[in-house]
Amino acid sequence: MKIFWILVQYEWRHFRAAKGLVVLTGLVLLVGLYGIYYGTTELARQRQHLAELPALARHNVEELKTKFPEPADAGEIGYYHTTFAVHHPLPWAGLSLGQRDVNPYYVKLRLLGLQGQLYAAENVNPTKMLSGNFDLAFVLVYLFPLLIIALCFNLLSSEREQGILPLLLAQPVSAGVVVGAKLTFRVGLVLGLAWLLSAVAMGWARVPLDGRVGLWLALVTVYCLFWFGVAFIVTAWQRPSAFNAVALVGVWLLLLVLVPGLLNVYVAAKRPVPQGIELTVKQREQIHGGWDKPKAETMNRFFALYPQWRDTATIKERFVWRWYYAFQHLGDQSVQPLAAAYSTGLRQRYELVETLNWLSPAINVQTSLNALAGSDLPTHLAFQQSVVRYHDALRAYYYPFLFNKTPFAHADYAREPTHTFTSTSETPTAVQGLWKLLLSTGVVGTVGLLLFRARPIQPR
Amino acid sequence: MIQSIAQKEFISTLRDRRFVVLSGLLLALLLAATLVGRGSYRTLQHERMVAQQTVNEQFHNQPNRHPHRVAHYGSFAFRPRAGLSFLDAGLDSFTGASVFLEAHQQNSVNFSQAQQSGSLIRFGELTVAFVLQVLVPLLIVFLCFSAFTEERETGTLKLLLSQGVSMRRVAWGKIAGYGRAVALVVGPALALAAWLLFGEEEFAHNPDVWVRLALFVAGYAVYFFLWIVGAVVVSARQRHARSALVLLLGCWMLGCIILPKATANLGATLFPTITKAQMDADVHEAAQKGINGHDPQDQRSAALKANLLKQYGVDSEEKLPVSVGGLVMAESEAYTSKVYQQHFADLTRTYERQNAISNWAGLLNPYQAIRPLSMGLAGSDFAHYVHFQQAAESYRYQLVQRLNGLQASMGYGDKERKLDAATWQAIPTFAYQAPPVGWALGYLLLPALALLLWAVGLSWLGLKLIDNTPVV
């Protein structure tokens, strides 16, 4: 055991002497800090944008109060009044931004048909979306494996190529202890770096200290161990350094580039999503058809859904707001099956990826971290559901004004329902991801050990 | 002599099992990416064409309606994919596919592919361009890192030089040999792409697509050339194969993975984007109160009305031959649209500033030169996207103004009347004309220049370095 620690100590001295590796490690540390800075400031910017929305909504109300100084027809108000449904992030999203830039984090709403408003896009530079986010999750998932590869590709082969290995093995020390000591030092270095960066990020983002801290650290740790397992297999194979480098980069390419790319193609082909556009086109057709249909027909269909308004006055006027909002809502109703199919389709796509992500621990870890941070598709779908409920609440608030012909007074603005939604961690998904990751790491470690046992270390 | 060295490198590369396996894999990937890209291109193109036809027919087959109702009914513009975008999908997965065109407001382009998938898509898509930009350089690195180190380690370099060849000529021979090997991998896939294009009625006789494809191929030829030269130079300057490989892999990671993301993110941090909510509010504010804040809409409308009465020499609205409502609507649309165009131009300028950091980085990193060049030639870059948005907006504006004109000509009391269904048949529908390659090249000068600078600089400086390299 003493020899083991002496070897670890010598590895440390070796490491300090190798300028290239020190620079590389320092670089990863800096890049990691940049990732933390970028992720948290990007999230702070989103928070700031969300904080500015109430002012815009207030401004709109002020404008309406000037436009309608007296109590007015609620139909007019509902038409011009805009309000916002907002999706607040978890602090964790600063560590793993996921799809928060692709999916809008607020929805501007009027009392009109919902389906025409629900899918509006936010201003985002598409070039930036293509390049992706440089957050901590990216550094951990993409770059840490490369650091591990750089540290381990010549674990034994360099000693062999420099002719030191025969001298080393001539000492009373087993090859297992040598490899073990070398790996232990490198695992310590990499995990120390990963934990340091995670701790800094958690402190910076002010995440609440609960079980999720452990879950994040466990995911990160086991993922790093997975890559050490891969490096161990390659070491046990005992080929020249150049071959090891090619093999390890090949595995990296396979797991981080090829498998995700192919999986993308497979998922798109296997789960075609009914185009969202079909839904908006149909909704428009229904809503505008409403103008040309007899009013009684429209109202009877509406009363079937809302019998409580059946006894209100029959419409004789050429135009009246309650009729207008009735056919807006019927437009939404008519595309209900399409809307449900659209969101179910998206969810099924996500779930298919979830069941297949064991193919690449990188995908598994990325989706698990996103799930933990509540920044992936399921959270966005949950947000959209909450927007639907909010729109229901808005209609429920306005209908009595419209059907009882109650004028909408200035004080009524303040009583209007408001919306807020905060992401929640999809902890079960992340825990499941951890189990799968443990399994893949176990497999890789076992294969490495078996290979190491089966092939005695060649000194030359 | 260069020829025979090139021939030797080419043949020994083909005999190398590692190369055969790697390049076989890469070729298979390229062919698969071409076919998959073609497949998804056709599906999306078909979907959008059908959708465009549907909404066009819906527009033409409207019943008797008031023109302003028709303006609110509006239409949709679908973005057709560019002919070469199956080779480089560029931004297509992140930009929306359709925009709703209606009176009074300009809507966002919605329903991007990225919104319809989970975070898996952020790992990148397997397109031909991706293989060419990221994976082929890796193949080149594996192929070339031992170009000189191996000869030096086995002592054949000295023998070779004793034949009276200069280091420089050896290097050129090697570059030519590796170039042939890479062409052997990339060539078939591009030939397949050309063949697929040729089979398509729409493109077979379209010189624009062929010019784009030719430039596309030329751009990648330069890109591969500079990777080969770079790898050979590194191999000559490094003492050991191992250090040459590690250095080259480091460059690849920095150039293809880290820098593109870092610069894109930096750009977004330096030049913040205005939110859609804020922009809409600003447009609304400027349209209501006038662009300079002293020209409110109510006053504009009142002045318009007063002018009309004076012009026709009448004292009330009822006696006017035109509908005041229609003319007020037209004036307001013109004003709002002008305001919107200003804000939209600001937003586009912000994006362009953000992208400029990335584009200038092309001078430091050839990957960031070939990427915009390739997207631009494929018609899937930011400039093409903005072109579509502007075409859609200009159609929207013309459509709405035409409908406002119809309303104005209906005279007083137009709201009580409708126009005949035949009116809508005469209105032209949205047809998008993608910009020609000459237009696209205007946006691609910087990346093209950066790529050429790299190629020339590397061949000149690198080979000069090789000349000064000690043989042993």
UniProtKB/TrEMBL annotation, chain A:
Keywords: Membrane, Transmembrane, Transmembrane helix. Coiled coil: none annotated. It comes from Hymenobacter citatus. The lineage of its organism: Bacteria, Pseudomonadati, Bacteroidota, Cytophagia, Cytophagales. Pfam families: DUF3526. The keyword Transmembrane helix applies. This is DUF3526 domain-containing protein. It comes from the Bacteria. The chain crosses the membrane at residues 20-39, 136-157, 188-207, 213-234, 246-269. The keyword Transmembrane helix applies.
From TrEMBL, chain B:
Keywords: Membrane, Transmembrane, Transmembrane helix. The chain crosses the membrane at residues 20-41, 126-148, 177-198, 210-233, 245-263, 440-463. It comes from the Bacteria. The keyword Transmembrane applies. This is DUF3526 domain-containing protein. It comes from Hymenobacter citatus.
